[in-house]
Amino acid sequence: MTILVTGIVLILALLAIKISNQYGIPSLVLFILLGISFTLIGVDFNDYPFSEKFASLALMFIMFYGGYGTKWQMAKPVALPSVILASGGVVLTALITGVFCHFVLGFDLIQAMLLGSIVGSTDFATVSSVLKSKKLNLKYSTAPLLEMESGSNDPFAYTMTMIFLAILSGSKVNIAMLVILQITVGILISYIGGRIFFILLEKIDFSEDGMLSVFMIAAILLIYQISAMLGGNGFLAVYLFGIYIGNKEYKGKRQTVFFFDGISNIMQIALFFMLGLLSEPSKIISNLAPAFFIMLFMTLIARPIVILLVSFFYKMKLNQVITVTISGIRGAAAIAFAIMAVNQNIPFEIDIFHIVFGICILSTLIQGSLMASVSKKVDMIDPNDSVLKTFNSYQDKSEIAFIETSIKYNCNLNGKTLAEISPIFDIIVAKLIRNGKQIVPKGDTVVQPGDRIIIGGKEYFDSSGKDLLEITLYDNHPWTNKKVIDIDLHHRTLIVMLLDNKNNVVIPTGQTVLKSGDKLVLYSLNDENS
């Protein structure tokens, strides 16, 4: 029955994404509403301990992918304000919100500060979802600023939450030492983990059969847990690890982008659905008024104060301040931290979970829906805003493909300009490397023997999947130790690629000698395709 329900939920979630794209409603709100609807039809779920573990796991992968997709070329110019917003901004937001909850709403001071800490961070999943779905190219590098802020501020909100939970539970805590450990250990473990990751990657080929994705999952889990065991912030560690390995190029990386994009989406769907399932509609309604006033205060007063203070260190124009303010959406991390608070068995005077739940629902629904229109109103949309990407990034999710080849001494392209070559094949020479130096290719660039050229063109996808066949040669295979030109190959069959024993890709010619252990990819034209 559980498997059946899971399948139904995933299909409904996919429909929710389509509705979101069509009507502009944040999809994550629809996932939560989907969870709430299941409680209304009688599904009873109140397992907070399990929810806390799953929420931590989901946030782990969501935050890793947030770092993995961060392009440092784009993030570097806004790194300083992003870090200030993610650290000092979270602390100020938590304290200002806590003061409001205590003096205006009458909450206990420490519980008010805990509530402010829980909702202190902005939500990466929601912010990035709105930016991508609305295709918001914002001026002044604001999009990478928002993504980097929302991707890196959860660890600081988590640390603040742990501090006030410790105070409420009566535990003795050295706040300065806790903060130092959380940050320094998280940074160190992410760096050490990244170095070990690439050392192993150089010695062992994980790129075949999807093993690289499995290796990366293992690395994420280990880095998170080791950091947590040593007193560091596991979320910060996996986020920085994602940035570290995401900004380097290595074999098989393209496939991992698709894999972790899917994993991140599934985790978001499952997390928000579970949070909706965990809630009680009657308690959401009874706590909606304080949740609304807190959300309104954070949006109109707390966050603008923080943004204006940051603008003293990093000059922001008024329209940028307005856009960054409206983009301070609260989401999954806050609800996950609220679950952690509930599991501490502290006798709260307020319903922490459902107040935080209401804040996040309202924030995502109202701010998420207004983000695009407000950005347009204040003239923050820049249609000419350039997005810096590596060649691999363009291959990650588009139909363009890049291949590398070398110009041989007897090649008939020698002495020709690129303007003469490109129209023949409907391709573009994207990069030229000569004697180890990179040359920006122009139409009048003349090709010389020994040049390595990177060619870009439209990727081909075989929808039938029937034309390619892979075979492995063995010792007594009739083709073993023969040249391609000498083997008995059907006239309607071509060897298009060869993978040798060291997993090197070889483009075969007639003089290529086939050896035992080689994997051959054959293209055969059958009667159906002739």
UniProtKB/TrEMBL annotation:
<feature type="transmembrane region" description="Helical">
    <location>
        <begin position="28"/>
        <end position="45"/>
    </location>
</feature>
<feature type="transmembrane region" description="Helical">
    <location>
        <begin position="212"/>
        <end position="245"/>
    </location>
</feature>
<dbReference type="Pfam" id="PF02080">
    <property type="entry name" value="TrkA_C"/>
</dbReference>
<feature type="transmembrane region" description="Helical">
    <location>
        <begin position="291"/>
        <end position="314"/>
    </location>
</feature>
<feature type="transmembrane region" description="Helical">
    <location>
        <begin position="178"/>
        <end position="200"/>
    </location>
</feature>
<keyword id="KW-1133">Transmembrane helix</keyword>
<keyword id="KW-0050">Antiport</keyword>
<dbReference type="GO" id="GO:0005886">
    <property type="term" value="C:plasma membrane"/>
</dbReference>
<keyword id="KW-0472">Membrane</keyword>
<feature type="transmembrane region" description="Helical">
    <location>
        <begin position="352"/>
        <end position="372"/>
    </location>
</feature>
<feature type="transmembrane region" description="Helical">
    <location>
        <begin position="82"/>
        <end position="105"/>
    </location>
</feature>
<dbReference type="GO" id="GO:1902600">
    <property type="term" value="P:proton transmembrane transport"/>
</dbReference>
<dbReference type="InterPro" id="IPR006153">
    <property type="entry name" value="Cation/H_exchanger_TM"/>
</dbReference>
<dbReference type="GO" id="GO:0008324">
    <property type="term" value="F:monoatomic cation transmembrane transporter activity"/>
</dbReference>
<feature type="domain" description="RCK C-terminal">
    <location>
        <begin position="389"/>
        <end position="471"/>
    </location>
</feature>
<dbReference type="GO" id="GO:0006813">
    <property type="term" value="P:potassium ion transport"/>
</dbReference>
<protein>
    <submittedName>
        <fullName>Potassium/proton antiporter</fullName>
    </submittedName>
</protein>
<dbReference type="GO" id="GO:0015297">
    <property type="term" value="F:antiporter activity"/>
</dbReference>
<keyword id="KW-0812">Transmembrane</keyword>
<keyword id="KW-0813">Transport</keyword>
<feature type="domain" description="RCK C-terminal">
    <location>
        <begin position="472"/>
        <end position="530"/>
    </location>
</feature>
<dbReference type="InterPro" id="IPR036721">
    <property type="entry name" value="RCK_C_sf"/>
</dbReference>
<feature type="transmembrane region" description="Helical">
    <location>
        <begin position="112"/>
        <end position="131"/>
    </location>
</feature>
<dbReference type="InterPro" id="IPR038770">
    <property type="entry name" value="Na+/solute_symporter_sf"/>
</dbReference>
<keyword id="KW-0406">Ion transport</keyword>
<feature type="transmembrane region" description="Helical">
    <location>
        <begin position="321"/>
        <end position="340"/>
    </location>
</feature>
<feature type="transmembrane region" description="Helical">
    <location>
        <begin position="54"/>
        <end position="70"/>
    </location>
</feature>
<feature type="transmembrane region" description="Helical">
    <location>
        <begin position="257"/>
        <end position="279"/>
    </location>
</feature>
<keyword id="KW-1003">Cell membrane</keyword>
<dbReference type="InterPro" id="IPR006037">
    <property type="entry name" value="RCK_C"/>
</dbReference>
<dbReference type="Pfam" id="PF00999">
    <property type="entry name" value="Na_H_Exchanger"/>
</dbReference>
